[in-house]
Design brief:
This is Glucanase. The chain is α+β, with helices and mostly antiparallel strands. It has 13 helices and 16 strands. Helix content is 46%, strand content 13%. The longest helix is centred in the N-terminal third of the chain and has 26 residues. It starts with a helix and ends in a 12-residue tail after the last strand. The relative contact order is 0.12.
Length: 389
Amino acid sequence: MRKVLVGLVAIVLLAIGACLAMNWYAARPWKAWQAFARVFVQPDGRIVDRTANARSTSEGQAYGLFFALVANDRQVFDAILAWARDNLAGGDLTGSLPAWLWGQGDDGTWGVIDANPASDADLWMAYSLMEAARLWDAPRYEEIGRAILWRVKAHEVIDTAAGPMLLPAPEGFALKPNGWRFNPSYLPEFQIRYFAMEDPSGPWSRVWGTYTDMLAQVTPAKVAPDWFEWYPEQGAQQDRKTAGIGSYDAIRVYLWAGMTPQPTLSPSMLDGYAELIRMRGLPPEQVQVTTRGINGGNPLGFSAAALPYLHALNEDRLLERQEKRLIENRIAADGEGGAESGSLGDPAHYYDQVLALFGEGWVAGRFRFGDNGQLETRWEQSCCGVFSR
């Protein structure tokens, strides 16, 4: 009997030790987020794009909310939200959608430069607020998030002959005659699933169906464009303004597809870009989507954004090459590089850092999206109740 009790005690102690180790692992700080916050997030919550005349955008504030939630950094989350509310939405995010661009005007004063909202930022803001309400048990966030989502439906979703579709913004994207201009990177599938679950009477599932039908018409070479046009008679067409190029917007299409569990927009439907990565070893900056002609360099952030996409395609060698490149170019605050530590590149560019937080954060298991689009974070995954919410 004594031997049995000793054995049971040993098992219990091992289980507790393993549990504590798991909790320690789950609670480790996200160094890449901390580095981003040091460089790009002001104490008042403004996220500054220092590579673009120190401007701020609703996209930057929305992404900042998401990353702060993933990092369990509620103080910074609240600061980012307050700055967006006071400076992009006239003090009330439940009453108006945030302006997309804030910065220094021609007269030298700082403020809103373009009040037109950006629908991708609006959806990311709504998503991050609604999930913050659930994960942090803070209902006030949900009220704001649902108000934003309602305004997206009212002002940024239109009915086309092909079905409902998300406009990039309420103004400026109508084309003559009777056409529209769309951005495929504005619609992550996991996010649309989430809104369809949370707002079942909304247009979200139908929007996704319209989007995938249109995108299929402009990806004959399995390469995503930055923009495309749609007309009732001709259907989806290559964008004339950007000459059918896939670049800084399109890279997010591959990123979202790679992070979505069991996607209907499978990475294999866009594997033309993977073939181009094989040719160079690195993701190309610009691709002509019909001919696969490539141009430009190989931005660091593109290597990060490609990680989930390459993972989904089982491109292990290409994945390892991107990870190696990122580690070699990550500058830690203590002067030592390494995965998830410090800023990416010197100097650090805003968009590179954002793509790295998404791509590297996902690969490192900082976050995942469930089948219904709900956010799963490392910090909420714990045992013994030590770090449970």
